[in-house]
Amino acid sequence: MVCALGIEGSANKIGIGIIRDGKVLANVRRTYITPPGEGFLPKETAKHHREAILGLVKSSLKEAQLKPSDLDVICYTKGPGMAPPLLVGAIVARTLSLLWDIPLLGVNHCIGHIEMGRLITGAQNPIVLYVSGGNTQVIAYSNKRYRIFGETIDIAVGNCLDRFARIIKLSNDPSPGYNIEQLAKSSNRYIKLPYVVKGMDVSFSGILSYIEDLAEPGKRQNKRKRPQEEEVNNYSQADLCYSLQETIFAMLVEITERAMAHCGSNEVLIVGGVGCNERLQEMMRIMCEERGGKLFATDERYCIDNGLMIAHAGAEMFRSGTRMPFEEAFVTQRFRTDEVLVSWRDD
Prior knowledge:
Layout: E1 3-8, E2 13-20, E3 23-31, H1 42-64, E4 73-79, H2 83-100, E5 104-108, H3 109-121, E6 127-131, E7 136-142, E8 145-151, H4 157-167, H5 176-184, E9 197-198, E10 201-202, H6 205-215, H7 237-263, E11 267-271, H8 278-290, E12 294-297, H9 300-303, H10 307-319
Parallel strand pairs: 1-4, 4-5, 6-11, 11-12
Antiparallel strand pairs: 1-2, 2-3, 6-7, 7-8, 9-10
Helix pairs in contact: 1-2, 3-10, 4-5, 4-6, 5-7, 7-8
């Protein structure tokens, strides 16, 4: 039995989780929320994390009813992510490791999402769609690695949604993507947008530029007329949110289905913050059922960045014999999913 404490702080959420032998003992989290129309900057996000993290560590231990001596390993997000927030988690993890004389492990953020999803849903060997504010990847496991079959070639799907929410001044509370999802439910009017799938890869930056022109036609520097130029003023924010979701989610379903066919898989697991979106889950479920497959997804407790996923992935690593010298306890903004040797899986 491995008891692990995990620290996640790669973006605007700081979370602490504790897990023992696959049983959730604590999962606490705080979110840095900015005013409508604004994103979160690395410096201010790190400040938020510094102010919250020690209180979260204390409350997680209290919730789990554990003492530091009950822990076997301390795990933190090594990357990818924003450097200043990542450093907050790493510094606290290193400090606690030295204070409590407990081994330390750095965990890949994406691997944390995948292993948490597998634990909660019971999915065995699924095609994984990893969708968040910083990442968009279609992944399958093979020979001790999580292989990337397709990904975004520019911005992540969550970043596309977040930036459009800022353009139309939606609230960031609880998250921009959630508020786009709710607004989209009040429309069924589809506006044709660019659909950009390149083999197994996708692109969202052009779609974002195009829909920004529709939302704010007066700001456009390029005065070339769009096909819908005459109808621009008739589009509501709900119409735009609905159309954006339908288009980009259809792209994700397409490349996921192609990966299923290539790998002969009948399971899909959606992980990452955008994976909470009920419309994305619905579209993916329809595709899976048409293929005789099954969709696995989790709710906001485990989809959104959390310390528990880092604790669980770290516990799996530790149980399989993975150890990390203290000198390697740094962070990196670029840490590919397929760089990690998956030592804990034998299939």
